[in-house]
TrEMBL record:
GO terms for molecular function: hydrolase activity, hydrolyzing O-glycosyl compounds. This is DUF4983 domain-containing protein. It comes from the Bacteria. It comes from Pedobacter psychrodurus. GO terms for biological process: carbohydrate metabolic process. Transmembrane segments: none annotated.
Length: 563
């Protein structure tokens, strides 16, 4: 159950105290192996109080920040772990909610500026709404410190209404001045969130790029504000007894309507410089029927009726030879021979194509088999559907660019269905990896299929203009599979999915990472890391019930700051 409300602090702390006494009494009698770290103060040899400052610069993309290289940010890099490729927030509000709750959009589903979740935005059929607590809520529950937020955005201030200190400001320079005032006056301040918005506004005219002088000037000006804030932080009368972690980030690059990747920097005087990067290939292991990826509502885009041409291609690697799971499709479940739509089925090492239009007055299941093609690693599976006339609609199957078989599915009539486009086992269990799923609104010819089976850059495909969906399935974090086609929709992951690192074991359409080293750490930066890092730094254990997706990655570098 996700924690929604604050629990009574006094009761909680009393119970926690009894638990701590019990644990100490038990472990004092006999030696045991060291338990997993729970981020207690006992891990540190000093008595400084840990505190957190989060500064969010709306609309500042990682690529632009790297190109502009403003002075204070560059100086902070020397004592920081940072990424220029933080997964983008979906909007202004959506990005901030991810940043403050530690959850991705697939969970919190807040997009609009009112910070309210639209029920069942993903169309998954769930009627309940799960709310996720913000980072300040956790901090005030477990720590006796004051919290604050300084932002010119009234809606964000309202969203963080549980904070102790929230001065009303209307400009970025007022944000800077009010932040410095709080740092000077509030000795018990333990967590502070600061938000600058001028950079995003500056990109409206001329673009959100380093080549836009207005945008660049705004970035450097904001960087100056950050430098002033950092100086005020270090000038606090209590600074010698405090241990501040400073997190710089953005809700997204670009605009709220067209966001791009952001950035994140975790700064501390004892940290050494390191850019955090994703290394190797990472994808989803669709291991059970509980793990799925769907397009919740395609507005009819992927309904192909009785006469539309289309092509579907996906690269797969099967780990077991299960029988009869449907592993990709847009179809109702198969009931005897009754079905509506199309799907791909695994039968041992055989790949089956199934079509039917039972719900639309057409025929039931029509099957085409490609025997023994799903074994021995990655394969590229391609299905084309070509309408010829009212009595001929030809489905052809290709494996690794080679034609295998075809059949006529005109008897199915319309294959339209309200069921979503879906990756993952249904109607049975399976265990496979998937990557580079593409859908074209045309039937590709055999030559085009063969020539592009190993294409690494989908934008170079000769039929790119016909592409209505492309999902690389290589994000490495969170629950959204981004659609990289000119048209189409994102997919949402469901179930207890996990991103699986495969290193250089890649499908034909993916370029192996030339920098990959076996056993090397891979870091996929997400906005949720800000919450995870804050709780980790404040010695607040992150429980599974919190639903936090973010990674407290500083726990991988403790030798640098636990002196």
């Amino acid at each position: 159950m996700t924690f929604i409300m604050k629990i009574n602090n006094k009761i909680y702390n009393v119970l926690l105290g009894f638990c701590a006494i019990g644990v100490l009494g038990y472990t004092g009698c006999k030696k045991y192996n060291n338990p997993d770290a729970v981020y207690e103060d006992l891990k540190r040899s000093n008595v400084k109080q840990r505190k957190v400052l989060i500064i969010g610069v709306d609309g500042l993309g990682g690529t632009e920040l790297q190109a502009i290289a403003p002075a204070n940010f560059t100086a902070m890099q020397k004592n920081g772990k940072y990424s220029f490729t933080t997964i983008k927030g979906v909007s202004d509000a959506g990005g901030w909610v991810s940043l403050l709750t530690g959850t991705g959009f697939a969970k919190h589903q807040i997009l609009d500026d009112n910070f309210e979740r639209v029920q069942d935005r993903t169309g998954t059929g769930h009627t309940s709404i799960t709310s996720y607590r913000n980072v300040l809520d956790y901090i005030t529950q477990f720590k006796t410190v004051k919290t604050g937020v300084v932002t010119p955005w009234a809606n964000l201030r309202k969203y963080l209404s549980n904070t102790d200190l929230a001065p009303v400001v209307s400009s970025d320079i007022a944000v800077k001045d009010s932040t410095i005032a709080l740092l000077n006056a509030q000795t018990n301040l333990g967590a502070l969130i600061v938000n600058f918005r001028d950079v995003e506004a500056a990109g409206i005219s001329g673009g959100y790029t380093a080549s836009n002088e207005t945008y660049k000037t705004s970035v450097n000006k904001t960087d100056g504000y950050i430098g002033d804030i950092l100086a005020a932080l270090k000038a606090r009368k209590t600074y010698a007894n405090e241990d501040w972690l400073v997190i710089l980030t953005s809700n997204h690059g670009g605009s709220s309507a067209s966001p791009t990747s952001g950035f994140m920097l975790a700064y501390h005087p004892l940290l050494s410089q390191l850019e955090l990067k994703k290394t190797g290939f990472t994808t989803i292991n669709f291991k059970t029927s509980a793990i799925t990826a769907i397009v919740p509502n395609d507005n009819g885009l992927y309904n192909m009726a009785d006469n539309k041409d289309f092509t579907v291609q996906m690269q797969t690697k099967f780990n077991t030879s299960n029988n009869y799971p449907q592993f990709l499709g847009k179809s109702t479940l198969l009931n005897s021979n009754t079905m509506t739509g199309w799907f791909w089925m695994q039968e041992g090492t055989t790949w089956n194509l199934e079509f039917g239009g039972s719900g639309n007055g057409g025929g039931g299941k029509q099957q085409l088999q490609m025997v023994g093609v799903l074994a021995n690693g990655w394969h590229t599976l391609t299905m084309t559907v070509k309408y010829v006339n009212s009595t001929t609609r030809t489905v052809s199957a290709y494996v690794d660019g080679v034609f295998k078989n075809s059949y006529n599915v005109s008897a199915s009539k319309s294959i339209n269905t309200t069921e979503p486009l879906k990756v993952g086992a249904f109607g049975g269990e399976s265990d496979y990896y998937a990557a580079n799923l593409s859908i074209f609104n045309t039937a590709l010819d055999a030559t085009t299929i063969a020539n592009n089976v190993s294409l690494k850059d989908i934008t170079k495909h000769p039929n790119y203009s016909n592409l209505i969906g492309f999902w690389a399935i290589d994000e490495g974090a969170e629950g959204i599979l981004g659609n990289k086609a000119p048209g189409g929709y994102n997919m949402f992951l469901g179930g207890q999915y996990k991103w699986t690192p495969l290193g250089i074991d890649v499908p034909a359409g993916t370029t192996p990472d030339p920098t990959y080293v076996q056993g090397a750490k891979s870091f996929v930066s997400t906005l949720g890391d800000a919450t995870a890092l804050s709780l980790y730094w404040m010695n607040i254990k992150i429980l599974n019930d919190y639903g936090i997706d973010g990674n407290p990655f500083l726990n991988q570098f403790e030798l640098e700051f636990l002196k």
